[in-house]
Amino acid sequence: MEVDTSAESHQDAGPTEASDRGCPLEAIYHRCTDPYELPHFPAIERTEHHTVLYELPYQPHTDRPPAPYCSPRTPSATGGTLRLPTMARCMMRNADGSHAVENRWTLVCRALSKPIANSRQLEDTIVQYNPDYRAHGQFGALHRLFEEQCEDSEREAFFSGTLPRMVQLALRLTELFRTPVPLLVQQQNHAVSMTQEQAACLLANAFLCTFPQPKAALAKSFPGNNFAPLFAGTSQSVVEKIKCLCHYFRRVCTRMPTGVLTYERRCLGRNALPDWANLSACISTERVPLHVSPDGTIEDQGTGLLQMVFANRFLGGGVIGHGCVQEEIRCVINPELLVGRLLFESLRETEAYLVLGSERFSAYANYASSFAFDADHRDGTPRDASGRRQCYIVGLDALRVQPGMDQYEERALRRELTKAFVGFRYGLDGRRPAPGIATGNWGCGAFGGHTPLKALLQLMVACAVERPLLYFTCNEDGLQERLVRMYRFLAGRQVCIASLFRLLVRYGAKVRGKGGADDGKEQDLYDYLYQQLDTSSTSGSAPSSTSSSSTLANQL
């Protein structure tokens, strides 16, 4: 008679009713009464690896943004500096067909000095200093918004109020940036901190498309600076994203925020990464509390936690285009994230990006093609001692599963574990207890990842770094019950990370050996783990949590 090893047979894994979400939510916050009580990152300090573009120290009790920092010397920037519109020249065609080279900033100032009464005049202004955008239809979404979907009063308010203030803000570029802005390039650990006012100035220039086209050497590794590709969109979701950005500018141009932000790139060398096949840390409710929520969102319910963005290797993914899923939405409701598109080179396998302190300005409804700007949002997130909103975002790009690729292959598993480890580990500096992480179905959907696998991989990494995990299932049918049951099963048996990793590798080999397709793995992965771990538990015990912690400390 065949033994039933399905999930339903594992009563010792604990209750799995729809109401069961794993550990209580209080455990994710280490039972702190204030969700912001545990510190995440050290205070901002000007160092060789941290460029600060404003005067320190930050003065919290003032209604003015910090003053720009003027460096007595040019800071070292091994990866180069941001190419501002003030640093470029522009090839212009004269009336007689000849060409002349002019200073771009002179052209920008001249063009923007004239009144702009509607979106057609805005287009005409932009092409004066960026003639590459002269193609027909380049500003279709912008015209659709202001000519078809705006009330007369809204249009008047933007072109007579908000836009002139945006122009004034953009033209303060030379005043607000008194020192070069380093690029955050691959294989370099570096951070750039700036004021929200400086970020708004850069974004105003991006909206007005004043940045020069990137040099050929950088075009393939940086996503592009100007918002022109967004204006050229054709879908309604693109129009809604423009609404979010216009609302942001209305807010900051009416009352400029006085806080600061940090953009940081983190890279770990191979010798700093754990060997997942030999990591003896055990999954337990004490080491890695897990709370699984079938509803809610990372940005709304993940307060006080390190918040995961399911990133593209280029920050923002398709935000300046037709993309409109988790990362893109986060970028338009927290537009200061978009400054990272100017700074971050594309991510490599052992790298993550962090944006600390961004403020949310918009509420939204729906997702993907039905995404819509909904209303103004007033962000009540408190600031840390450095003046940053305590909104700490980590961006990790998942493996994009291509046809013929096996995400259960050992190399693919190691890649995802390593990527999550880089983001989950940073900022701890040995502090315990560590703040939790708010995450969800990372690398699923368009990237093709299997949700049960990606949930397990993130659980394994959270266990390795000893951080609680708040997991949002995005209402995926049955995932809450399956994940909580598996978590209770693994924690009840004190299964070590190495054992789980090796089982995932064996599972992939087993399915490949049968000629199975990826389509079947999502349904039977957990059943396979139940069967294998039930069998192994009869022949030996799991490593003790004490020896596990000691071994992990030596590896990390």
Automatic annotation (TrEMBL):
Keywords: Hydrolase. Pfam families: PARG_cat_C (PF05028), PARG_cat_N (PF20811). The keyword Amino-acid biosynthesis does not apply. Substrate binds at residues 312, 326, 367. One of its GO terms (cellular component) is cytoplasm. Its EC number is 3.2.1.143. Residues 284-480 form the PARG catalytic Macro domain. GO terms for molecular function: poly(ADP-ribose) glycohydrolase activity. It comes from the Eukaryota. GO terms for biological process: ATP generation from poly-ADP-D-ribose; carbohydrate metabolic process; nucleotide-sugar metabolic process; regulation of DNA repair. Residues 1-21, 535-556 are annotated as: Disordered. Residues 151-265 form the PARG helical domain. InterPro entries: PARG_cat_C (IPR046372), PARG_helical (IPR048362), Poly_GlycHdrlase (IPR007724). It is an enzyme of class 3 (hydrolase). Belongs to the poly(ADP-ribose) glycohydrolase family. This is poly(ADP-ribose) glycohydrolase. It comes from Anopheles epiroticus.
